[in-house]
Amino acid sequence: MNQKFSATEYEKKYQQGYGVAYPESHIIRVYKQIIEWELGIRGGTMFDFGCGSGSHVKYFAYQGFVPYGCDTSETAVSQTKALLPQFADHFKTSHVMPDLKAMFGPLELNVFMTNQVLYYLGDADIHRIVDQAYAMTAKGGVFVASMMTHGCWYARDVIGTEGDFSRLQITSPRQTEFMLVNLKERDEMEPLFRPFRKLHLGSYGWQIRDEEGPHEHWLYVGIKD
Known about the structure:
alpha/beta
């Protein structure tokens, strides 16, 4: 229920202009500080699970990567194709729990990324995506994922639980909506993303409006040995 609800809501949001036009700073820093500087990966093939309107795959394409991606929003995927017409057939509209190999064929990825997406899935479905990512990733390839923390201001609006999810009734002058979110503690991150071996576990966030508080996410970077 949660996954289908989230996919429907995000399709509506993309139709109304949702999405970022530029790559987010934490993605740039992961690339510059870890993928490029620490691991020496400068190009190859990358996949963005939940690619949205394409700002991050465009950034990686400019760094010399061949980008692939999927999203549940048909509107978002259309925007990504328009942004990178030379790779248009590399981006596809997917079910919430897709069979990536069936959709894209055999890929050997240097980077598999999923940004601000997986916390709309339960743990079992996250493991299914991680297992697919691991199978698609080349030895020495990188896995990058984010999850929302209990320190996010959303957590103050928890009204109950439903399996792996916190039931949230978000109320602020800017945002009023019901959400189911899989909030995580720091010590839950490494087991969640096995069999990738942890390289770094950091965090990122922002606070723009006083009444909303900090918006905090874990940022996990793993590697396939």
